[in-house]
Design brief:
The complex is a heterodimer of chains A (about 240) and B (about 250). Chain A is of the alpha+beta class and about 240 residues long. Chain A has 4 helices and 10 strands; from the N terminus they run ββββαβαββαβββα. In chain A, the strands form 2 sheets. In chain A, strands 1-2-3-5-4 form a 5-stranded mixed beta sheet. In chain A, strands 6, 7, 8, 9 and 10 form a 5-stranded antiparallel beta sheet that branches. Chain B has about 250 residues and is of the alpha+beta class. Chain B folds into 3 domains: about 45 residues, OB fold (Dihydrolipoamide Acetyltransferase, E2P) (Beta Barrel); about 70 residues, OB fold (Dihydrolipoamide Acetyltransferase, E2P); about 100 residues, Ribosomal Protein S8, Chain: A, domain 1. In chain B, the strands form 4 sheets. Chain B has a 5-stranded mixed β-barrel with strand order 8-9-10-12-11. In chain B, a hairpin with a 3-residue loop joins strand 8 and strand 9. Classes of the chains: A alpha+beta (about 240), B alpha+beta (about 250). At the A-B interface, strand 3 and helix 4 of A face loops of B.
């Protein structure tokens, strides 16, 4: 079911750009989304964005046994973002760390406004995001894949949340930073939106940007989100075929 | 203004129609627009638009008949898994009346029961009962899990689909509204029934399913496929739809 995009095809686009992989400033890395890749999960999705490879499983709504987490009027959305030890060049120590705990929390908060949680009081919806290979922008890849997996699980939602990052690298404001651009760059702005209404459900900013640059980065990120949104919709429709 | 056709596939966030239409199940209203909240097929009835999900969880409703498995024995009740976000309870008084008896002697953990949902309260506590025709414990047989929204399709128009499976495989088949199917018969026949039921679940949203199921049954049983009866396809499909909405 899963075919892997080889990393060789990356960075063979235009030569005019200053970016390390030759992309235009508003160009995303090549991406691909597939829904329903796991047999035993209620919903699942697989996403590739450049060198990122992310797999998401959704279970639920299901019974919540932990009483203190239970909400009497709505379901709880629990997310777990996890990076595989082999996902980065240096081995990542397995288990949750400060970074993955933060990403789990913001992912859940980014998805929550779109989900009809009040339809399933006293239950839980569990989202597991596993990063198999990381190359910059995994939190956005995780959110984008997670909403496809939620839709695949039949969870009622207002819309499919989609996320994309923008930032500043070598003095230029660019969309969808790669790992190199993120590490050497000046700023990183991940954004998640509900595309139909344009509501922003996640906005982080790391680094220094002038107000003008920030505005430009935000707009670039939203444009990127819209492109990914189309791919999300196609992925779900392709899952059931015609 | 309506932006979609009947039976078209939609995904969450798709705008379906303007305010002159009514918002039904699987849809929500936003700024006078009716939008889909699910991945599913649109059903337009008069001015009411609903979306029938392709995948869903069972939400217990009073009066439903369900198949549940006992997960725990408590002091005066059994806990049951009913393939839903909410577990069910079966009070001991429902089985023994006023008499006090050992619960283990009646049903044990792992037993599969056919029950009726007696009550669902505001905290989603699901009370189950065994009073009614055909309700009780299943012995042997296998369980097959399908998506609850596909149960009407599996049953078919006036039970046509399920009766066909029963007749051809000579198995006893019981379908719970929570998407659990119990099949008992010759082990090889059980397997045939399981394959057919899984196929129905996979293709529930396609048309002309009854004929394909018949062909598959005959193929698996190694029988000759009889000449296709001349039956107007359209009427049959319409009937299936009716069942889906019921």
């Amino acid at each position: 079911m899963i075919t892997i995009i080889s990393n060789e095809i990356l960075g063979k686009n235009s030569t005019s750009s200053k970016r390390a992989d030759g992309r235009a400033s508003d160009e995303l890395r090549p991406f691909k989304i597939e829904a329903g890749v796991l047999q035993r999960a209620d919903g699942s999705a697989y996403l590739e964005l450049g060198g990122n490879k992310v797999i998401v499983a959704v279970y639920g709504p299901r019974e919540l046994h932990i009483r203190r987490l239970m909400q009497p009027d709505r379901a709880v959305l629990r997310c777990r973002y996890n990076m595989a030890p082999f996902s980065v060049d240096d081995r990542k120590r397995p288990g949750p760390d400060r970074r993955s705990v933060e990403i789990s929390k913001i992912t859940s908060e980014a998805l929550m406004p779109a989900v009809f949680l009040e339809k399933f009081p006293r239950s839980t919806i569990d989202v597991f995001i596993e990063v198999l290979e990381a190359e910059g922008g995994t939190r956005c890849a995780g959110i984008t894949a997670a909403s496809v997996a939620l839709a695949d699980a039949g969870v009622p939602m207002h819309d499919l949340v989609v996320a994309c990052a923008a930032g500043k690298s070598e003095g230029e404001v660019v969309v969808d930073l790669s790992e190199v651009e993120d590490k050497n760059g000046e700023a990183d702005v991940p954004v998640a939106i509900i595309p139909r209404t344009g509501e922003i459900t996640l906005l982080q900013s790391d680094g220094n940007l002038t107000p003008e640059e920030f505005e430009k980065a935000l707009n670039l990120a939203i444009d990127g989100c819209m492109k990914l949104s189309e791919a999300q919709k196609e992925a779900i429709i392709r899952r059931y075929g015609d | 203004m309506i932006f979609i056709e009947d039976k078209q596939m939609v995904i969450p966030g798709d705008v379906l129609a303007d305010k002159e239409y009514q918002s039904g199940r699987g849809t929500f209203k936003e700024d006078d627009k009716i939008c889909s909240s699910l991945v599913g097929l649109v059903a337009v009835r008069d001015k009411k638009i609903s979306v029938i999900p392709l995948q869903s969880k069972y939400i217990p409703k009073r009066g439903d008949v369900v198949i549940g498995e006992i997960t725990d024995i408590r002091f005066s009740m059994w806990n049951l898994d009913i393939n839903s976000p909410y577990s069910g309870i079966l009070p001991a008084s429902d089985v023994f009346g006023k008499e006090k008896r050992d619960l283990n002697k009646a049903f044990n953990v792992g037993d599969v029961l056919f029950l009726r949902v007696v009550d669902v309260d505001e905290v989603k506590k699901v009370k189950l009962g065994l009073k009614g025709r055909g309700l009780g414990k299943f012995r042997d047989g296998i369980l097959i899990y399908i998506t609850p929204t596909k149960v009407p399709r599996l049953i078919g128009k006036k039970g046509s689909m399920i009766n066909m499976i029963k007749d051809e495989t000579k198995c006893e088949v019981v379908v719970g509204q929570n998407g659990v199917v119990w099949v008992k018969g010759d082990p090889s026949m059980e397997r045939v029934a399981e394959k057919v039921i899984n196929m129905i679940e996979e293709q529930a949203h396609t048309s002309g399913l009854t004929d394909r199921v018949r062909n598959m049954l005959f193929e698996l049983l190694g029988k000759e496929i009889p000449e296709k009866e001349e039956k107007p396809e359209a009427t049959e499909e319409a009937a299936d739809e009716e069942e889906e909405n019921g």
